[in-house]
Amino acid sequence: MRLPLIGILRGVTPGEAVAVGEAVLAAGITTLEVPLNSPDPLESIRCLVEALGDRALVGAGTVLGVDEVRAVHAVGGRLVVSPNCRPDVIEETRRLGMQSWPGVLTPTEAFDALDAGATGLKLFPAVQVGVEGMRALRAVLPNGTRLYAVGGIGAAEFAAWRAAGVDGAGLGGALYRPGQSPEQVGEQARALVAAWRATDGEA
């Protein structure tokens, strides 16, 4: 079963992308995002798709426009994550058969994203909304809406967010920072996966 965790590799370079991706994948995180404000992000995505595409869902983050959606698709990406809600970006992503995870902060943005066909919602920055704010938003969302918390979420916060109704999380600085070795990233990934599974009562 795929864990509802997105590994955000902001700042990764093409030369290290596969080794870092392998380390994250080995820990159990099978959704990988390379933000487009990373060095040569499309090449990193291409490398990850070629090496891991049969085992992982790979795509881009910080996707702001339709042209960027098409560029991600052209290198094999199948995931588009954004910090904001733009219906044209969501619609083009879905037209191309990719998953769309737009950033939302308010009910208006959440429903606009769902109306445009979003696969799920990225509550961002989650630290700004807080657990109680997320709980209030969750209460008005349609049943079955997938809501991931992103921004300021780490192992220490998993239990509170999950108890309040979040479905998953995007893991950035807690998982990977530029310059870290694959071994270090793998260790961090294993700790995050263990903490997430512990909220389900798993050993």
UniProtKB/TrEMBL annotation:
Keywords: Carbohydrate metabolism, Lyase. CDD domains: KDPG_aldolase (cd00452). Pfam families: Aldolase. Pathway: Carbohydrate acid metabolism. SUPFAM superfamilies: Aldolase. PROSITE patterns: ALDOLASE_KDPG_KHG_2 (PS00160). InterPro entries: Aldlse_KDPG_KHG (IPR000887), Aldolase_TIM (IPR013785), KDPG/KHG_AS_2 (IPR031338). Homotrimer. Belongs to the KHG/KDPG aldolase family. PANTHER family: 2-DEHYDRO-3-DEOXY-6-PHOSPHOGALACTONATE ALDOLASE-RELATED (PTHR30246:SF1), 2-KETO-3-DEOXY-6-PHOSPHOGLUCONATE ALDOLASE (PTHR30246). This is 2-dehydro-3-deoxy-6-phosphogalactonate aldolase. It comes from Halomonas sulfidivorans.
